[in-house]
Design a protein that fits this description.
alpha/beta; two-stranded antiparallel ribbon; 13 helices; 42% helix; disordered N terminus; Thioredoxin-like protein AAED1, chloroplastic isoform X1; PXL2A/B/C
Length: 260
Amino acid sequence: MAASVGSTLLFDPLQHSRTANRASALSFPRQSENRSLRPGRNLRSSREHLVLSWRRSRVTASAVSGSAGVETSAVGEDTVDSLDDVLVFDLSGNAIPISDLWKDRKAVIAFARHFGCVLCRKRADYLAAKKDIMDASGVALVLIGPGKVEQAKAFSEQTKFQGEVYADPSHSSYEALRFVSGVTTTFTPGAGLKIIQSYMEGYRQDWKLSSEKDTVSRGGWQQGGIIVAGPGKNIISYIHKDKEAGDDPPIEEIMRACCS
């Protein structure tokens, strides 16, 4: 998904009149009227610039990226702050702050739609195929799914996923990262074709996992994404948000973000 940002300039006649009058008044300024020469104004401007620069430096984030791999917008500080309160659970049922997964290392973290999803099983293989490169670069491979620990265990056993698997029963990480959800993002022509292709390649949906109450009521319509984060709790260097089911970014894009 290549996203473009357009801007619209609104013309306000009253504001234009005020601006024109101001420009007229400054046509032949005396030195005392030239505000740009006032030390106090320059000092305030410098302070504002420093504060803004400090705020921006708290979070290192490249971009929200889509299928075409084009950078579109940065991850905000509010997103990183929201993740501070998110807990995920390992396969032993231990609660772990999600940012601990990349606090002391770099990690590629895939967010599944749900643990029974056929397209997520294909995504797991698509990422695991590059795990040797990630290992050589000291990068961890992680998958998080919205659901219970028991569902995460079943997914891990069925797929033999080579990375770490965690459960997010509260869906808090999906909400913090603002991954999309809804029927219209799940049942699309593109997603339908990808499901057919996945079945032709031998992948299968686990209907038992897909039919559990939590998945049906919430996770069934949830879309996921992929991030590259760390080392450092505030470092998110790449994020891809799925626009629809099966919206995998090019693997080369992920590898550039994690291992180049």
